[in-house]
Amino acid sequence: MEPSKQPPGRPRDGRVDAAIREAVRELVGESGYGALTMDAVAARARVGKAAIYRRHASRGELVFAALVHGREPQPLPDTGSLHGDLTALAALILGIFSDPVVKAATPGLLADLKQHPDTAARFRDTFIAGERATVTGLLERAFARGELAERADPALVHAALLGTAFAWVFLLGRAPSPSLAPALAVVAAAAVTAGEGATGQATNSSSP
Questions:
Q1: 82 and 189 in contact (C-beta within 8 Å)?
Q2: 22 vs 17, 141, 173, 190, CA distance in Å?
Q3: Are 102 and 165 contacting, i.e. CB atoms less than 8 angstroms apart?
Q4: Distance (Å, rounded) from C-alpha 39 to C-alpha 50?
């Protein structure tokens, strides 16, 4: 997924961003999410704590940005088909979830989001909105190619990919195989086509 856009203002120092990301990865890998503090990140990155708070309002936002959205941007290719595009997106999600540091941080991060509704709301308005935009673009391409009879709900596709990948890696504890990303693409595509079928059935059943 592409990282969230930087708000307007003075450009950030990329070296500081990189140092913060590396510090987060090292500290989570060494001690876990629960032991991570802003003070520890500042000390490891050798930056002022104010520099961190200018970028991230909470520990959860800091960790998510460093481990997921702080990665090098990986624009999704236009493969020419809905299945191909969904496979590429599924492979990206599985790659992120399979990162050992991400796996170590995720349970604590989710707990923080549950306990802090304001943080969870910012996640939806920034990070999740950015991811949803990627999914929307993918579906719009499919609609323009004529692969979809109507515009699909990006939230449904997003949930199908994220939820299935999360269950596979975190709940079942299984490592993704090379065939998993194409299989997840089939699941997500089925969610789209099932929605189209349901819409059509509802329309037909309401007709006199």
A1: yes
A2: 9, 35, 26, 39
A3: no
A4: 10
DSSP state at residue 167: I
CATH annotation of 14-200: 1.10.357.10
- Determine if the pTM surpasses 0.85: no
> 67-101, pLDDT tens digit by residue?
887 655 566 789 999 999 999 999 999 999 999 99
Q: What is the pLDDT of residue 67?
A: 87
How many whole angstroms separate alpha carbon 109 and alpha carbon 117?
Answer: 13
Joined tokens for residue 1 = 């997924």
For residues 2-36, one letter each, b for 16 or more C-beta atoms within 10 angstroms of the residue's C-beta and e for the rest, the string is eebeeeeeeeeeeebbebbbebbbebbeeeebeeb
Residue ranges per domain, the chain? 14-200
- Angle formed at CA 131 by CA 130 and CA 137, multiple of 5 degrees: 90
